[in-house]
């Protein structure tokens, strides 16, 4: 039996970042991973999907090449080459994580790990039994354990994935040919990203969303603008619409399914259906039944330091059911490892964390939406500034969208920043920093933003909140 200070169950973004932080703090750390280091984010999520989104963005841009003086008479898209590029990027990053494990002297154990209850190996729950691919097993006895087993795509009840006609986002990343048409069930970040990507590839896309609007967690004006721009690109969007799984049937080379919208039924047909209704924590069959760990709404309950009801077991990332974002999992992992090491870290303030959707255009936000601010009793003031007034956006040929800032009329505090437009996922960190530092919009406006840059839109929106915008 091998002993460690900390065993991390799962080598995804949260898990491997936690392990590195633990090694920096002088702890002896092991990571148990059944698949490849990097987890969902690297292999089935963030990175491969963004690689394909870049291909889609470039293809869409080149199709409009005449405007830029580029002849595009013989333009075609090669999915195979785009997939190969995606795989190359993933493999390069995977090798980078493997290098970091070696550099930091972290033990990586390939196998399936399950947490054990109190036993002869440990008086407390938290030892980990690892089943190796060769059939052998071993027991790890750490002083602390971090659960970082991630999540899986949520299944539409009554309609399981078949990998051919009904796909999860994981399976869609392995397509070898593009369908002529696709139904996307779910209008959240994943659904919108896939709708944008497939539309740019020339696929006829229909989004079906049960809630009143797509990107429902974003500010209503952002959601409305994204809806307008997707429809402008011929993406059909049905909101307030419910899929009837029992009506699903195969027709020729495609599928048909009934949708109920406000009491009216219609049948949608397509070659493929992508189900993107969220992800569920992967907590089954990891030994939780042998512990006192509490589960609520399918997720592990933790305190502000990521500790579970078992004082030596922590949980981070998608398994705790909060903001299911890679950068959140990474920082939860750092916090948990610092708590284990006795560092007394400050709890994460989730209100300061940026949210991003990588469609075309992109969406990024931090803080409260306008509706949330009003619901919480703030006297709200808002301002917007359009990208069409920004020289760099016009140079890029991507001038749709705007920056919206929400402030407190009484205190002038910054309450939220919301963006829809070109490369806004790269712009949101300035707003997130302002939110962390409790900066006033006035201070953002006083920051000199270089010209010509897209960041000028944020500066102008901040000035507009006090009627001081220069270019509007």
Automatic annotation (TrEMBL):
Entry-linked InterPro entries: Class-I_Pyr_Nuc-Dis_Oxidored, FAD/NAD-bd_sf, FAD/NAD-binding_dom, FAD/NAD-linked_Rdtase_dimer_sf, Lipoamide_DH, Pyr_nuc-diS_OxRdtase, Pyr_nucl-diS_OxRdtase_dimer, Pyr_OxRdtase_I_AS
SUPFAM superfamilies, per the entry: FAD/NAD(P)-binding domain, FAD/NAD-linked reductases, dimerisation (C-terminal) domain
Positions of the FAD/NAD(P)-binding domain: 4-333
Taxonomy, superkingdom: Bacteria
Segments forming domain Pyridine nucleotide-disulphide oxidoreductase dimerisation: 353-462
Cofactor: FAD
Cofactor: how and how many bound: Binds 1 FAD per subunit.
Source species of the chain: Sulfoacidibacillus thermotolerans (Acidibacillus sulfuroxidans)
Active site per UniProt: 451 (proton acceptor)
Other noteworthy facts: The active site is a redox-active disulfide bond.
Protein name: Dihydrolipoyl dehydrogenase
EC supergroup of this enzyme: oxidoreductase
UniProt key word Ribosomal protein: no
